[in-house]
Amino acid sequence: MSYPLLSIPGPTAAGKTGAAIALACELDGEVINFDSRQVYEDFPIITAQPSSEERAQCPHRLYGFMQTHQSLGAAAYADLLLETIAEVRSRGKLPILVGGTGLYLKALLQPLAPIPPIPEAVRKKIQEACEKLGPGRLHSDLAKVDPPLAERLHPNDRQRIMRGLEVYEATKKPLSCWHAETVETRDFHAVKLGVGLTLDELTPYLYKRIEVMLDLGAMDEARAAMEKNNDRNAPGWSGIGCAELFAYLKEEIDLAECKAMWGKNTRAYAKRQLTWFNADKEIQWFRPGEHWKMLAAARAALAV
User: Fold this and answer.
1) Regarding predicted confidence, which is higher, 32 or 130?
2) Is 155 found in the same domain as 37?
3) Could you tell me if 133 and 253 lie in one domain?
4) Which residue has the higher pLDDT, 116 or 129?
5) pTM
6) Which long-range contacts (CB under 8 A, 24 or more apart) does 293-297 make?
7) Number of domains in the chain
8) What is the span of the domain harbouring residue 38?
């Protein structure tokens, strides 16, 4: 018999953190991150990680534990989630997963087929092509061999674009096809309570949040991160907001261009997130701030 856990998916800036904390406080839970950008230690403001005040309200796990040069694939992150879930349950607490990286949640709930190791020669070939031609050109190449994956990725997401091309080059099989295959079942099931708005409703909040992040010190955060790691190809710098601030600090664009690109790219990302999560018919949707409705739904589903 499988045991339940709670997940709160949704697009960026929709209010998932507040909902997760509210439910954790009422249901004796701990919040576990499944957002691929909020894992980076050097970018707590730019990636909208929970503040110290928010973390003080309940335990938070898997936030800000990775360095800028590091990366984790979906399958590896699913292993981390499994370990964390087991640890939380061992203390009699309810695991509450929250985030916006749909593939991480899918890899946890529907384990992915293992992808064969990528030969170093292939990896080097793709990396050199990216450095020479840029991620935009490689994104176009990816769209020819793996359209579903390319559609989900921003043209500046060099890390994931290179990964998609590496896998296709080495296996002659699109990464999206590997991701569609599952190899086992889990001994738990997820109650999915999403937080979201339509894209038009969400857009003003996305642009406003950029100004809030800058007021909170996002520029100083990026400057300090650059002193530690000046490689724009490092995985941590590929995140939205990080990449735009990197370009500004390198004096490649002015601040107005930086904020415009940041807003445009954030909106495009939110659109991709909504497309992904709206395809999941198991998600029960709520508007931001409807914590009491989410709590009632959680209690009904979890019988607590």
Assistant:
1) 32
2) no
3) no
4) 129
5) 0.81
6) 294/8, 294/19, 294/22, 294/23, 294/193, 294/195, 295/22, 295/23, 295/26, 295/27, 297/191, 297/193
7) 2
8) 3-112+182-302
